[in-house]
């Protein structure tokens, strides 16, 4: 059951990452969710981890806009 919850979590995070990359904007809440998912979820696959790292890099370099919702 725990593995199924982890897989569902990864799917949701993957959808969030794709939406952020498409829109070029990330809310502070979404940014915090991505940060905590990396810290808590040891089962994030390498591809998803790389995409999340890309979001962090893009926000630091100004290629992604952090917005307040």
Give the topology.
Layout lengths: L1 H22 L1 E3 H13 L5 H16 L3 E3 L2
Parallel strand pairs: 1-2
SSE order: HEHHE
- The end-to-end span amounts to 34 Å
Low-confidence stretches: none
> In one word, what is the shape?
globular
Overall strand count: 2
**Helix run count:** 3
| Helix content estimate | over 70%
Structure write-up:
With 69 residues, the protein is mainly α. The chain has a two-stranded parallel ribbon with strand order 1-2. The model has no long low-confidence stretch (mean pLDDT 90). It is 74% helix and 9% strand. The chain is built from three helices and two strands, in the order αβααβ. The protein has one domain (2-67). The N and C termini lie far apart (34 Å). α1 (2-23) packs parallel to α3 (46-61). It has helices spanning 2-23, 28-40, 46-61; strands at 25-27, 65-67.
Brief digest:
The protein is mainly α and 69 residues long.
Which key terms come to mind for this protein?
69 residues; mainly alpha; 2 strands; globular
């Amino acid at each position: 059951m725990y593995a199924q919850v982890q897989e569902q979590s990864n799917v949701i995070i993957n959808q969030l990452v794709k939406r952020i990359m498409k829109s070029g904007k990330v809310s502070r809440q979404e940014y915090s969710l991505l940060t905590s998912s990396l810290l808590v979820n040891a089962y994030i696959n390498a591809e998803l981890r790389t995409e999340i790292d890309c979001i962090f890099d893009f926000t630091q370099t100004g290629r992604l806009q952090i917005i307040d919702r």
